Amino acid sequence: ETITKFVEKEFNVEVEDVLVRPLGHALSIQVHIFLDRSMTLDKVNDIVNKMQDAVGKKFEAEETLIIPDPR
Question: What is the dihedral of CA 36, 71, 9, 61, to 10 degrees?
Fold first, then answer.
């Protein structure tokens, strides 16, 4: 399962881009997602934190960064 498919399926968001880079013997993953611009900052923060944890665990990343963009 790809990172894009996992994120879109588990979190019901649209993924704009995914960047995966080696970080020593581990991975660094960046996921750019679109979120509704009317969401509160608290809601965005909650989604981003849950997504970072889930992606990091599923794909065994040393560093996971979720970047939300308004839609």
Answer: -100
Entry pTM: 0.91
pLDDT tens for 15-33 read 999 999 998 899 999 999 9
Containing 32, the helix (H) or strand (E) segment is strand 26-35
**Residue 19 CB partners (closer than 8 Å, separation 6+):** 29, 30
Distance CA 7, CA 54 (A): 9
Q: Could you give the strand order of the β-sheet that contains 14-23, starting from the edge strand earlier in sequence?
A: 14-23, 26-35, 63-70
Q: Counting beta carbons within 10 angstroms of the beta carbon of residue 60, is it exposed (0 to 12), middle (13 to 18) or buried (19 or more)?
A: exposed
